[in-house]
Each structure stands twice: as structure tokens, then as C-alpha cells.
Amino acid sequence: MCGVVAVLGKENASQLVVEGLKKLEYRGYDSAGIASVSQGLLQTIKSEGKLVNLTQKLHRSTKEKLYLNNSIAVGHTRWATHGNISFENAHPLTSENKIAIVHNGIIENFEILKKDLTSLGYNFKSKTDTEVLPHLFMKYIKLGNDLLEAGRLVLKDIKGAFAFVAMSVDFPNQLFVSRNSSPLAIGLGDNAKFIGSDAHSIDHLTQRIIYLEDGDHALLKINNLDIFDKDYKKVSRKIINIHAEIGLITKGGYNHFMEKEIFEQTVVLPQTTSSFIKNKSEIVIDFDKFGFKKKQSLIICAAGTSYYAGMVGKYWIEQIADIPVIVDLASEYRYRKPSIFGQSSMLVISQSGESLDTLMALRYGKELGLKTNAIVNVEGSTIDREVDYSLYTRVGPEIGVASTKSFTSQLVILFLIAVGLGKRFNNLKTFQIKKKCQLMNMLPSAVANMLETENQIKLVAKNIKNSKSVIFLGRGLLYPLALEGALKLKEISYIHAEGFAAGEMKHGPIALIEENVPVIMFLISDGNENKSISNLQEAHSRGAKIILIADKKCIDKAPFAHFTVEIPDFENEFQSSLSPLLMSIPAQLLAFHVAKERGTDVDQPRNLAKSVTVE
Ligand code: F6R
After folding, report:
1. Domain 450-604 top-level CATH class
2. What kind of fold does domain 251-441 have according to CATH?
3. In testing the pocket of ligand 1, which one of 329, 352, 392 has its CB within 8 Å of the most ligand atoms?
4. What band does 25 get if pLDDT is binned at 50, 70 and 90?
5. For residue range 499-539, what is the model confidence (pLDDT) as tens digits?
6. Does the annotation count 193 as an active-site position?
7. Which of 302, 307, 311 lies closest to 477, judged by CA?
8. Are the beta carbons of 17 and 75 closer than 8 angstroms?
9. Known active-site residue 301
């Protein structure tokens, strides 16, 4: 989603901003731009599409001396919300070529503001909500306000979720920033200041970071930083020393980040496990902190893949710990007036820690009086900072837009929460706890074995690459995986895909079956497999192309399948307890190889953003 970077007080600021924008590319965007002030002039360069288009333009302009050297610059990668993908709608947006704004979020009351500004003679060149910001700044500066005062008046006018930076030719050594629900980090340098949508985007410039809190605004000067809270009270926010992640963010010999992230699961999952299992069977989760002083229900909120992880978590926690779990889409939770009867604890799940829907659900849970916990990958993210208790997946940066290693690592923690709660409320005996922890330790080699299904998966990918629609089926623990498999396929290959609980097919979705529609089922011998095979048979009788990803015993029971992917033989308990973890590997590989066959942009699929910071 939109990315913001700014540099103040360094030579070649525009170039440094572009380097920061490159680090935000993974978030997803469809246009980009930069602006700087030099010799009293505001210069703006923008382009549609990838950053390479912007850098080429910048390069040409610099060569032809059209673009001047500068020590202040702002930059932006835009993920279109209001207004289509176009040069005009790309940021920075300007007013009278004197003010430039880069903005992440949505100004909800922009229509009324635009009407007022138009009546005052301001000319709108874009269809964005953002363009009200430069014109509002212009209006207040013309009235004699300095940048800080103008910024404060703008903040009084606007409603919504935002993080923005304002730069003005009238104040060439200052930047004004503010945030409300959208992420923003300020970096401190020697005689320089930096701004980024995340700390990583400026970690080539500094490792000293301050995160603004919601409602904060700040005035940055080369040698000074003043931060104010929403009541204009001067505040100091904690300086955090971060570690540059530059070395970690490479494709490591793979052609795509997603491919690398699928294959590194054997290495990163033990990182997750080892921080939660000590002395072989001790689960290191503080359930008092978690809000489980006594046995109560748990509410889980998340979005997308993290939501599907939550669904698996519900099955595990109910089965293993006998604790009722409600799983809700974060985007629905706070708008549906949920009852918290019987609940004391909320768990949100988020790779980025920045999904606005999830953040809002978390804040709402807090308001309702719940203890809030998060399974989160990005330490220091907004969700991590606001929650009462964080459980880190620790799988390193995930750059591919499609979530892979974060899904499996979220599952690892959810399984351990189930076991830990089972222990706490005496639902498990000591030997059972030990056994379940042992299962977790077997995971890396099992994942390595599952990765060996790749050649079989490639054949399936070739066969379904031209399908118009694909159906995924699963039952029990593999039902959420059917949903996840379908999401993964549609988001990176753009093939329409739906996941269903196998038993639900006959209640409606079976009407979709026609000759050669691929029906992909994840199946494991868990005692219920015969029921699922009957569901598959029903699809087969209506002409579907049956693709079965299963263990040998299940495959033998379904000789009618057109394609099979045989998964390795694992111990029964391991296989049936951890089936969603195991089967997520072929689900990820399948989406990846279909996308490759179709030649789509695997790591940055169209229209998608890694970090979804609008509601
Ligand atoms: C799918 C995917 C998204 C995210 C969702 C939540 O592959 O990546 O569906 O899972 O946007 O993101 P986080 O986990 O960062 O809150």
C-alpha cells in the first residue's frame, strides 16, 4: 500500500528517497513520484507503473540538468484508492507549485473540503482525496501561518486515517508530518532527518528511529525535531535503535521472493518454534498476560491469510484445550457490535502488524475491555506496539505479497497456544504435551519432504494454467486450507478460485461443476477421509477434473482422480494433527507454479499491497 519517504539535510536527497522507495516496493503500488526544493523551486517527477520508470525520468532530468541537486525531498509509491492509476493522481500532489504532499491513507471528508477549496479558486488537477491537503496548506500559508501553524489548521479540517508529509518552498529547510492510524517512522541522523512508512525504508540512512503515536504531528528541521500530541502538547517519543535488514532482503539465488520464502520455511519455522518451546516440552507463553486467568472463550480477529490461520487455530484450540473460540474477520468485527460474553482475551494475527482492519479490531477489543494479544511478524509495528502481549513469528521479512512463511509460522504459534491452554486447564496429560512438542520438532524435516512434491505440483500447474475457475475442497482442519489455497491461487495467477468445506458442496457450490473444472482436494487419513472421497466422487460424476493432494492410503481409495500429488508417509498423529501445516506447502507451490506458467508478477501481483493500511 502507499509508501512515504522523505529526506531532510542530506546531499542528493532525491536519490536517497528513491532508494527508500525501493525498499517499500514490496508493499504494492501502481505509480510513484518525488519532489524536492532547490534554489527556491519545487520540482516534481512522477510516473505510472514501477519505480524503474521514475528512476529513468529522474536520471534523464538530472543529466539534462533539468533536475537540480537538493538536500530536501519527499517521495511516494501510490496504491490507488480514490482516482484511477494515472500520472495526475500520482503523488506528490502540489498546490500552485509551492507545496508538495505525500500521503498514505484516506481523507474521508475530502469531498466537502474540495468543494470549499474550489469555491476559493483552487484548481484540482487530480481525482484524489489527497489533493485537498496541498491546497489547504496553501490556503493557510497565504493567511500568514508558518508551516507548523498551517499544518495544525489542516489537521483540524481533515478526518480519516492518514500519514502525510508536507514540504513548502516558503520553508525550504522544514518538513511537517502527522499520523493518524497509518504507520510512520522518523529517523534521526547527524544534521539530517528522515521519514519513512516503515523503519526499513530509511535504515540505509539511520538506525535511530522514533515512531509517532496516533494524533501526533511534528516539525522536522535539520537540527531539530519537535513532536506534539493531538492537544498540541510538546512530547518526547522513545528513540528505538533498529538493526538494518539490508543483508536479509535478497532473493538468495531464487528468481522470486515468494519462491525463496516457500523454500526457507524449513529454516525459519524452527526459529518460531524455538522461542516458544524450552526444555523440550515447556511452552513459553504467559497465559496470565494473555488474559486466561480462568477458562473463558477467545476471540480471534485477522484478515486474509492471517484470518485463515485463525480458523485453523479455532479448530486446534477447541480440540486440544476445550476452549471455545470465535474467529472474526477484522474488517467486520468492530462494525457488528460483538458480544464479549464469556470472553476476557482477544488475539489478533498479522504478519505486517499494520493491517488497518486488524488494528481497528484490536483497538475496539481494547475499548470493550479485553486483554489484547497479537501473533505478529514485524517487531515495532503498530499492532506490536499497541497490543498488551505480542508473540513473534520471527521468520524475517516477508517480501512476496502472497503470504507463505508467515502463514505456517502463525500456525506453529496457534498450535502451541492450543497445547499451552490444554496444559493450563488440565485438558492434556504430561506425556501428551511432550508428544505434541515433539511433533513440532519434527516439522522442519517434514516441510522439507513436502517441498519434494514440487515436480508433481508442476505437472498439475501446467494442466490447470488455462482454467477459468478452480475449486478447492477440504474438511475439518483442511477446510481453512481450501480457503487459503484458493486465495493464494487467485491473488497471484488471477484465476478465479473458491474454497469450500467438502461437505458443503452439495448445498449449492456443486452447481458450478461443469466439464473439466478443476476440483482440488486436500486430504489426509484422519478417519473422515471416506466422507470427503464421496464428496469428490459427486464432483467427478458431474465432469470435474479431480486433483487429489493426499497420502497414499487416500489416493488408493480414489482411483477416479485425474491427477494425484502423493505426499510422503508421516506418522499418523503427526500427519493428522499438523495437516494444515503440511498441506500449505503444496498449496503455496501450486499457486506459485501456476502464476509462473501464466507469466504474472509473482511477487507484486496486480492491485495488491503487502501492508494494507486503509480500511
Ligand atoms: C494473502 C495475504 C493477505 C494478508 C492480509 C493480512 O496472501 O498476504 O491476505 O494475509 O492482508 O495481512 P497481515 O497478516 O499483514 O495483517
Report:
1. alpha beta
2. Rossmann fold (3.40.50)
3. 352
4. confident
5. 999 999 989 999 999 999 999 999 999 988 999 999 999 99
6. no
7. 311
8. yes
9. no
